[in-house]
Amino acid sequence: MALERLLEVLQMVRERAEKHRADLEKSEALTRYALIDPVLRALGWDTENPTQVRPEFATDTGTPDYALLWEGKPHVMVEAKALGKKLEGAQDKAFHYAYQNGVPYFVTTDGLRWELYDVFERDKDKRRLFVVNLAEGEAQAARVLLALWRPAMPAVAVPPQPVIVPPPKGRLSLTELLAKMERKKIPQGSKPPNELHLPDGQTVSIKYWRDLVTAVVAWAMEHARLPVPLRFPSTGRVLVAKTPEGMRAPKEVKGYYVETHASALYVLKFTQAVLAEAGLDPKDFQVTLRSS
């Protein structure tokens, strides 16, 4: 499936950017070759076919880095920057190229950060249709980037932003729960929440703090792409792996092992790390606290 293939490529691109960052930050050409071209191909654009993709597309007003063609005409123009470079200048340049040549959309990217703009939207504040950063997780980025999927052209269908609904009375999101514990409004020795409410409406009973981690990992594995092994960012400690080697209290979840040896505070930090890697928002995961 297109989404599954795109997820694989986005993960590869993110890992490649991390591994070769020093070189990529020095070269726009290398960034295009190593990071941007693979994403375009995963979105169905054959970068070797001049009827689909034209690099260094010459116009009377300048030369955008790419033109993505539909029925022989530029439909999306792309301005690229070396990894980590600011995109503000590229936005102005790309808008100028696209507007002067009647091209309805333009993209700016440094290989990890991707932005899409509607050139002829009169309200400047509404012109940007999306911005995603692969470094913040591939799952959400993949869903958004499919707006550029070539087989769906000429439509550019950006998924709607999720409506944020406040948690019902008596519930907290995992983000709020972590904040309260860090500020010691909820003592470390407190009992765990009674229930975990998942984004799809399911509810999981919680007996121990570690149950939060295993429930979140199980849901993320089923509904998103979770890179394995997954390590805690600040310490490198393995949280999810194919084997229990090196874990102090491994728990098997859907054929993988999850580290559950942690204080209440670090259980919540572990869940944040898992959701970040899966491209999921911890605000969408809510808990019901015990009455006492």
Description:
The chain has 292 residues and is an alpha+beta fold. It has 2 domains: 151 residues, Alpha-Beta Complex (tt1808, chain A), CATH 3.90.1570; 118 residues, no CATH class. Helices cover 33% and strands 20% of the residues. It is built from 8 helices and 14 strands. A 6-stranded mixed sheet has the order 1-2-3-4-5-6. A 4-stranded antiparallel sheet has the order 7-14-8-9. A 4-stranded antiparallel sheet has the order 10-11-13-12, covered by helices on one side. The radius of gyration is 22 Å and the shape is elongated.
Overview features:
292 residues, alpha+beta, tt1808, chain A, 2 domains, six-stranded mixed sheet, four-stranded antiparallel sheet, 33% helix
Summarize the structure.
This protein is of the alpha+beta class and 292 residues long.
Question: How are the SSEs ordered, and which strands pair?
Answer:
Blueprint: H1 2-19, H2 21-24, H3 28-42, E1 53-55, E2 66-70, E3 73-80, H4 88-100, E4 105-109, E5 113-118, E6 128-133, H5 138-145, E7 171-173, H6 174-182, E8 195-197, E9 203-205, H7 210-223, E10 230-231, E11 238-241, E12 250-253, E13 256-259, H8 264-278, E14 286-288
CATH architecture descriptor text of the largest domain: Alpha-Beta Complex
Task: Flag low-confidence runs.
Answer: none
Q: What is the helix tally?
A: 8
Highest-level CATH class of the largest domain: Alpha Beta
Residue share in β-strands: 15-25%
Major beta sheet summary = 6 strands, mixed
> What gross morphology would you assign?
elongated
Query: What spatial order of strands do you see in the largest sheet?
Result: 1-2-3-4-5-6
CATH fold field value of the largest domain = tt1808, chain A
Structural class: alpha+beta
Q: Quick check: average pLDDT? A: 89
Topology order in helix (H) and strand (E) letters: HHHEEEHEEEHEHEEHEEEEHE
State the helical fraction.
25-40%
**Number of spatially distinct domains:** 2
How far apart the termini lie comes to 48 Å
Strands, total number:
14
Radius of gyration: 22 Å
